[in-house]
Amino acid sequence: MSLIRLLGFLLTGIVLLAIAGGAALYYGVTMYDGDLPDFEQLADYKPPTVTRIYAGDGRLLDEYAREKRVFVPIDAIPDVVKHAFIAAEDQNFYTHPGIDVVAILRAAVTNIDNLASDRRPIGASTITQQVAKNFLLTNEVSIERKVKEALLSLRIERAFTKDHILELYLNEIYLGYGAYGVAAAALAYFDKSLDELTAEEAAYLAALPKAPNNYNPIRRADAAKARRDWVLSRMAEDGYISADEARAAEARPLVTRPRGGEDQARADYFVEEVRRDIAQRFGSDELYEGGLTVMTTVDPKLQALADTALRDGLVSYDRRHGYRGPVQSGVATDDIEAARKRLEDLGRDKPLVPGWRYALVTEAGGKAAKLIFADGAAGTLDLEAVKWARKYVSVDRRGPAIRAVDDVVSAGDIVVVAPADDPTEVAAEADRRAEDGEGPAPKAAVGALKLVQVPDVSGGLVAMNPHNGRVLAMTGGFNFAASEFNRVTQAQRQPGSAFKPFVYLSAFEHGWTPASIVQDAPLALDQGAGLGTWRPKNYSGRFYGPSTLRVGVEQSRNLMTVRLARDLGAESISEIARRLGIGDWPPYLSTALGAGETTLMRLATAYAMVVNGGRQIHPALVERIQDRDGKTIFRRDERPCEACSVPEWHPGLQPPVLPDTRDQVLNPLDAYQLVHVMEGVIQRGTGRRALSIGKPLAGKTGTTNDSFDAWFMGFSPDLVVGVYVGFDTPRSLGDNEQGASAALPIWIEFMKGALADAPATPFRTPSGIRLVRVDAKTGLLPGPDTATVITEAFKPGTEPTMVSGMQDDYGTYGDPGAGAGTGGTLPARPSNPYGGAAAPAPGGLY
Predict the structure, then answer these.
(1) Mean pLDDT confidence for 191-205
(2) Does the annotation count 483 as an active-site position?
């Protein structure tokens, strides 16, 4: 055959192959063209992004997302990051039309060579093809999917700019550690924002798209560094960095840094409350995918104080009632591996507070006990470490003093221990030693351990700005990891005596004064058919005779409070509870002693409205919420303020004056009278232990029947703090436990820290209040026999005009001029809602 004929056959074959290939291509295009997904959706790309919760000082509290992603526009992504991914994934990205023919041929040749060495075949997908696959197709391995991927890539390239395609890719790609997109990955691996990344860090991120688990920086450190260095060499080859820069970067070790350092704050119960609020307000999809920025009201410093104070107080209460025994007993000590596994399981199933650990007692003697931990470490407990652990017999009874370590623990016991210098342990031990009449504890050795016990009792603490309702701290229990139930917002409990101030507030509204006299004497009330007679009594069981309303609050007198409520009418008590948001309580006299249910948050809010002069507020945990584009979609303070939008401040510019839009729910004079009376609770009454704080304070203790619940509600002029202590399944705290013993110490510890650097600001006196010196016992002007003089707050026209000792100090029933401290004309007497004779007029003796 001639050469010409051979060439003719070859040419004909090539032409036929070309025609066949073209026909196949045309057939493939037409076959799949109508079945391609709509790529136009990529024009309005809004990926699921992480919602971030921030504290009031700007520190991160928590994040919520189904996919941890932070969207970053392409213009904000540094060049070093773009170059690293282009060098690693698609060298010809800016020049190819969506598919890279040169890369495909190169990959084909490489894969043929790899057949002999049994190496994994390499791909040649462009960044555009990866966008098409990640957004529009599945991960199915098939020719059909590859054809669709190529066709979509060509169309995407014609429809969008290269920068938009790269933006889609860099924000969508999964890079391990739960991070989607380069911004989330920078935080996850290096705890840095994108603009802080070095070349070697960007190169490591670019090494991850193909198989993040294969280049884990901890488990596969050598492979991870090798892959990073390969990316650096590609960056140098493509001219993005110099060869010297690449060599210097390759010489540096691969160092990652987990998130959650000093810039992150903790407020577990607070954040969970915020999470629920956002989910209810905007829906779960917006919470977990909407990329919201949530600025909260919490003050991390106060929150840390709240967590510590509540934890210390609950441990101290628990410790003075005795040791309930080991977590588990009878565990075999001869199989250490099985024991360690059991300790690990306990730590996972019943998490402890930071610093506390489960341990197995392997040996126990009179002087010491030996321990092992889940990680294999060992420890010991000496006599001093267990001396507090007298056996719990009942809530009011403990066993004998501890003389030996093995009086408390035995081999095979699983116990909880903490460092002896743990702040909670130190505080609890100091309280215990004071309770038992012992001296100060000897200084513990470095690394020494103490036996501890997770309290059965629980409680909550909330701190609030009384002027705007901003919640500054909230802790709803001993350990959020063990129980997410929030005793500040979710526990419905009786406030007991902590509600009494509102009965006296109602009296002030009806014309009584703090110097008015009420009889403290036995009282019997018919409760109706078949209900018997109610005979309330004071906590002490004693009666004290005629006393001023101030004394009734300061000493928390039950009989005086019920008499006052009977005179006012039970409906008045229910009305003020509703008005201040405490609760919708029925009109029963027992509510005067706090027999209705409320939450710590609602009660604290009511106290806040008293101290702020009677302005209505609502508790607020969220200051502002912005969507993913930075648009404010919620703002706590919605008052109009045009002057707040000036572009810049300059000398002489006056601060804007904002309108006060709060409703006035109390007369400021009535509210101040109650504040002034509650100052006396701290100065002379049931809360006088708080005098140690050394600042102007006011408050009220609260204890319910049989000591089921203990409260202390108190405030400074600019801070309201409420504390509740009780069991989740209600039972007595003990015969000797009250608000003053169980809740007040927690309040004091918190307030000492919160007000440590604050000036001693006095309570603000509203215009119109008359401050008059009176006889503390009679409420009249001081006379020759006056033993104690105090300053009392009166509304105009109600000041006393008579001198103590000049006549019958307590007046007579129904004589407006004779009632101690009443002055002027008294209001009409309300009818008695329980039948019988009308109640006496305010100020009368009854």
Answers:
(1) 95
(2) no
